[in-house]
């Protein structure tokens, strides 16, 4: 286990675009666990001068014009180049984990949502990993409801490993094809299993 002063287990939550990760995290949060979204922490870190400088050096000064990071431009750059996406993750994700470790947690099992966990090679950063998945068609329908075009959906999916590959590396796999009550039941079962490991 990745023992620290603040928690006993760090659990990575991952899955491809619009597969139900947020719904899973909301349920864990309602059960009293500490939950974090890596992407939200990254957004805050993008305001840090040191981070802005690192991003500028790696991806070009056009990304950091006016001493702020142009997130839209950066997103376009990394989604069109897997090597650059991996580089961005290698810069940001270790800092995200350090930030989480600095927090005093109420519950000793901490969940962190990292959509590109496997793509970033972060498996060893977590004690356990839970993969949230859904069918391609369900994910596509969900993306449309969120206002994404088919082209945007495909671009994001192409930057992510297929579920079949991720399933082999995850400790648990949750399929979100069912309704919310079914997801809640599965989530509670995993919570009990994790509590038993403490």
From TrEMBL:
Organism name: Candidatus Iainarchaeum sp
Protein name, per record: Dephospho-CoA kinase
GO biological process: coenzyme A biosynthetic process
GO molecular function terms attached to this record: ATP binding; dephospho-CoA kinase activity
Keywords for the protein's UniProt record, in alphabetical order: ATP-binding, Kinase, Nucleotide-binding, Transferase
């Amino acid at each position: 286990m990745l023992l620290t002063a603040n928690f006993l287990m760090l659990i990575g939550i991952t899955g491809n675009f619009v597969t139900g990760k947020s719904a899973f995290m909301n349920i864990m949060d309602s059960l009293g666990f500490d939950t974090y979204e890596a992407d939200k922490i990254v957004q805050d870190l993008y305001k840090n001068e040191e981070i802005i400088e690192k991003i500028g050096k790696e991806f070009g000064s056009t990304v950091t014009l006016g001493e702020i990071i142009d997130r839209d431009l950066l997103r376009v750059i990394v989604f069109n180049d897997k090597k650059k996406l991996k580089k961005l993750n290698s810069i940001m994700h270790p800092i995200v984990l350090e930030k989480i470790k600095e927090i005093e947690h109420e519950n000793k099992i901490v969940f962190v949502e990292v959509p590109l966990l496997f793509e970033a090679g972060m498996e060893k950063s977590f004690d356990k990993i839970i993969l949230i998945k859904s069918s391609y068609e369900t994910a596509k329908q969900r993306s449309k409801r969120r206002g994404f075009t088919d082209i945007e959906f495909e671009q994001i999916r192409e930057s992510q490993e297929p579920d079949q590959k991720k399933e082999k590396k995850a400790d648990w796999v949750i399929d979100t094809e069912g309704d919310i009550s079914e997801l809640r039941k599965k989530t509670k079962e995993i919570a009990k299993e994790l509590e038993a490991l403490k």
